[in-house]
Known about the structure:
Elements: E1 8-10, E2 16-19, H1 22-29, E3 33-38, E4 62-65, H2 70-78, E5 81-82, E6 88-89, E7 96-99, H3 104-114, H4 119-129, E8 135-138
Antiparallel strand pairs: 1-2, 2-4, 3-4, 3-8, 5-6, 7-8
Helix pairs in contact: 3-4
Amino acid sequence: MDTDEMKFSLISESMFLKFQSQDDRRKYGGSCFIELQFCKVAVPEVMEDIFKHYDNWRNDSLYVHGDSQFYTIYSSILGHGVYPNMKEGYFDPWGITYFKSCLIEEIIERAIQSKPVGYEVLVEWLNEAKKYNGFFVLGL
């Protein structure tokens, strides 16, 4: 691969993207992405504090371009997460939603049962998320 080429991968013809660097992400399409990000901190004593432990644009995140049908296809598969105001619901495509690690197996099961576009990539990423304290969906 030429050094001037972008080093991103559209994984298995799905809607999911991974980037080797943030420069590659910017070259691909700027900042119009939903980001699925591992929550790498322990469960805090106060649940609201979990929302202090994310930062955008991690290289080990899974990205979905904002123009995709991700919400339509995956909101019911992901199920209900927790918002910063401690209410629960489908992920907020414009905000932050946290999904506890205890929900990951159920999410994997729903993805495998319904087999939407790119589900294999999501399942692989979710299996990695089991090592951590759940994950965030960071909206546009």
